[in-house]
Amino acid sequence: MGGYFIALEGLDGAGKTLQAAMLSRKVASLGLGVLSTAEPTDGPVGKLIKEMLVAGQADPRELALLFTADRYQHLRVEVEPALRKGAVVITDRYLYSTLAYEGAMGVDLDYLRQVNRLARLPDLAVLIDVPVEVALSRISSRRALQLTERGQLLSSVNRIYREMASRGELAVVDGKGKPEEVFDRLWGLVGTLLQFKKP
Ligand SMILES: Nc1ncnc2c1ncn2[C@@H]1O[C@H](COP(=O)(O)OP(=O)(O)OP(=O)(O)O)[C@@H](O)[C@H]1O
Ligand SMILES: [Mg+2]
What single string gives the DSSP state of each residue in the chain? Predict the structure, then answer.
């Protein structure tokens, strides 16, 4: 079975969506099949999550289980079929987001790991690492509301992400600098993975 499963992680504004788009273009240009996907998904559970987030009805214990249910559906309906076809699957956020965000909101990390235990681990999970100030400056024009509150949360999120990185669960790419510079670093990891596993 071919296929490579790659997850991009990082704070709001870290550059995940931009890097995911650059990465899928690059991979496609090599003639490989690509599925570019994201969590929360556009499936029924993902839609519910997005509605709850917009409405501000975001109890972290509820969100933790909904994000996780959405993830299992994501795997079954989209990710695993694409991997079976040998595609490179690039997901913009994965289970590390649940650990980092819901963990930062006070949900027990071991519990979060436990409910996510049946979700396959990616071949490569990358933290696009930026300081909170950089993340906030990139999103400030887009979502000016409640940035101070968000900043406090994001500091805790970043701490959990960096702890996971120091445990070797996430590879780290420095997300500072121009998009092309970040991409060169990211490609250093992904290119190695694809070559390494090439049949
Ligand atoms: N390296 C960079 N330098 C400057 N601006 C950037 C860089 N990377 C991304 N941006 C810009 O910053 C904003 C946030 O980037 P992006 O949407 O990719 O972040 P994200 O990690 O997907 O955030 P979210 O988690 O909120 O979806 C976008 O307007 C994007 O064009
Ligand atoms: Mg994004």
Answer: ---EEEEEE-STTSSHHHHHHHHHHHHHHTT--EEEEESS-SSHHHHHHHHHHHHT---HHHHHHHHHHHHHHHIIIIIHHHHHTT-EEEEES-HHHIIIIIHHTT--HHHHHHHTTTSPPPSEEEEEE--HHHHHHHHTTT--TTHHHHHHHHHHHHHHHHHHHHTTSSEEEE--S-HHHHHHHHHHHHHHHHHHT--
